[in-house]
Predict the 3D structure of the following.
Amino acid sequence: MAAKQLSLEEAKAHWAKTSTLMWTAMAIWFFLSFVVHIFARELNAITILGFPLGFWFVAQGSITGYVILCFWSSSAQNAIDREFGVEEE
Amino acid sequence: MVMKMEGGFLNNLGRVYAIYTGCFVAFTVLIGILEYAGVPNVYLGYMYVAGTLTVYAVIGFLSRTGQLTEYYVAGRSVPAFYNGMATASDWMSAASFIGMAGSLYLGGYDSHAFIIGWTGGYVLVAVLMAPYLRKFGQYTVPDFFGARYGGNAARLLAVIVLVTASFVYMVAQLVGVGIIASRFLGLSFEIAVYAGLVGILVCSMMGGMKAVTWTQVAQYIILIVAYLIPVTILSAEVTGVPIPQLMYGQAIEKVAALEKSLGILNAHANPFSNARGEYEFMRMVNFFALAFCLMVGTASLPHILMRYFTTPTVREARSSVGWSIFFIYLLYFTAPAYAVFAKLEVYQNVIGQPIASLPAWVAEWTKIGLVTLRDANNDGIVQLAEFRIQQDAIVLATPEIAGLPYVIAGLVAAGGLAAALSTADGLLLAMSNAMSHDVYYKIIDPKAETAKRMMISRVLLVILALLGAWVAGQLGADILFLVAWAFSIAASGLFAGLVLGVWWKGTNKPGVLAGMIAGFVTCMFLLVSSEFYGPWLKALLGDSTNLVAARGRQVAWPFGLNSISVGIFGIPVAFLVTIVVSKLTTPPPQEMQDFIDSIRIPTGAVKLAEGEAPSH
């Protein structure tokens, strides 16, 4: 497989974009894991389909977010790799 | 016989597992018919266990291999979707399957730290690690430490952390097997543990990672079906709609109303509160500390990370993390429904009812001690304080709460066994691979022949399994608290080295060695001293450390933090020491920088530094 050899600048730019994606994903992760649950008591005042919202976030909301986040970040990384011509196959 | 078309197998995975699932459903129906015909329950239980173990053994036998790449990393041929399933059953242990819903039942909101803690770590795996470990592309997690941090010292430290964390975790799985098998088959606990041992070894002995992968996929199918069926039927009975994950909102409303009328002050959905329903700041801190340790621990446990060595490409490693968390999600976003439906049943049909007219499941589970009922005031009515239910009973008793036949209870037991066996297999393999590949081949005898290396690995597999079974048999259920240790140990010892190794080029060998030792020692010191020398630790740390009676001891909570979350100290210590020592010593040489650059990009060759030959 004749893989494309990135120049130093290209490699730097590729990694800069990858890092930005990483920090974005980490910020969303941090929000879903910690920030939203700090407000659990306040959110519990709102009820949807019987679920107090704060409880729903800890039981189902955050983890639904994680699943979406994992798939989204992996496709966003694929897009970055394509942009720099370093995707596989 | 379907599996015989080797080579064809990988192209026919969908069909093979569809046929397998069909056979399993037919098998379950058959057992249901036998039950209807009057065959005693204990025989049905034996059939379930024998049937599923036979399937695992057949897969293990068909996947036997003499090839190193197949034995260590399943030939790097596992598609993302199936690696996701295998990871999910590798991940979900007896504790997830049997214990978690029960701890949500007992602990309410605060226990949901387990839900986010045992899933959120996959975001860290997906973003920070899996693609880079796959690109690095050798056999084990210690391999990465060896290559990135120039040699055997870091490799050996990684092996020590790996074995410590994995062994305590594996023992807990064997205890889980013992509990399930003794309860459903009436075997003695010790015999059940050794029977489980056989179940584990038949999967992993002959085919290593290849066999474990395809068995874990089969085990996932059984465990998820077994988990979803009882609560789905219960939801249909209680709410009229068979979607428990959505409909338990209705049940929460009813539970909340019952809590009020029963005088329960701390509602199920009430966060960070004590028994009087009052908010406590330290409860919130403990909630976040536990969630954090479990998440970072997830991203550091080698039996999970090594699964991402098995995909064909970097891209598939990445998407297989998505599939992993998706398949885990199916169970985890259902567990809270189990807890709430069980609570509704108890508050509605048990508490305040005459003892003479309780539902049948109460008597059934009272017999084996999972439910205790004591009419303290002799009024013939069950009071809230007179009724106790153990956490394991929630999932196990749900089929009976829903009024389902024994065949479904047996199915749940088979699912619990699958969960425990698959996790134990992954852990066992992680340990024996690390010891045979990293310690024996890389450190002791680099010239060893392939056949000899695989023989060593298999021998270690048996020895470790026997040792685990012996410890499990000796200590029994008293050691289940050790599961939580594994997360803090792995997180404190490995996480900083893994993350910084990819994301900060400045991390060097002295830094990582110091950081790993500091993190691991901090964590182990706090775990052991808080568990076994609680009063001494309190005297050392001062008044903010409190003592809690647990497991017949005075367990210390360092600075008011639950002792299972001590990773909250170990993880930052590891990061801090790694960074400071790396800054103070010489930065890694250019060839190491090139190596890091090469694993950051999906394509191209991996440029190993310092004469580290790639493994063959």
